[in-house]
Amino acid sequence: MDNGAQGGKAYGFLKSQQEEKLNSTNEAFLSDPKYAEEEDLASKLEMFKKKYMEFDLNDKGDIDMMGLKRMLEKLGLAKTHLELKKMMSEVAGSASKDTISYSDFLNMMLGKRNAILKLILMFEGMGKEQEQKEAGPPNRKTFSDLP
After folding, report:
1. How far apart (Å, rounded) are the C-alpha atoms in residues 93 and 105?
2. 19-33, 65-79, 115-129: which range is least confident on average?
3. Which residues 6+ apart lie within 8 Å of 90 measured at CB?
4. Are 118 and 124 in contact (CB under 8 A)?
5. Which of 31, 36, 125, 141 has a CA positioned 20 to 30 A from the CA of residue 77?
6. C-alpha span between 47 and 125 (Å, rounded)
């Protein structure tokens, strides 16, 4: 019995627990009159949930400073501690909070305010979709490469 699988299992369990929690938050948002006018709300929530789960979540299932830092580094956007703090308080709506909960995250993504993090994720999301459409063999040819 190798240890890796065990860790993976526990991690998988944690992930599925987290996902259940996120799903119930999504359901609450679906029945929130505030977002009744939102087009394709269910599919947006599904998309935001996947995006949220790409972060390294802490044991409460929130994004903490390290999780945010790592996510942004993955995107090639290293931020200073101060910038991270500012992004967090912008999303969480208070400077004293040092985590972003899933509801905070959804309020940001669905809200009218353009938080920096939202802009980054939207922009990054658009890049991702482009890549997925071309997810074939990795011979990324563009029209300009054609003879």
Report:
1. 11
2. 115-129
3. 108, 115, 116, 117
4. no
5. 141
6. 10
Note whether 113 and 91 are within 8 A (CB): no
Beta strands in 70-138 (DSSP E): 99-100
Length of the chain in residues, anyone? 147
Residue 69: strand, helix, or coil: helix
Q: pLDDT digit string (tens) for 87-107?
A: 999 998 877 788 999 999 999
Please tell me the pTM assigned to this model.
0.77
In the three-class reduction of DSSP (H, G, I as helix; E, B as strand; rest coil), residue 119 is classed as: helix
Exposure letters 22-39 (e unless 16+ CB within 10 A, then b): beebbeebeeeeebeeee
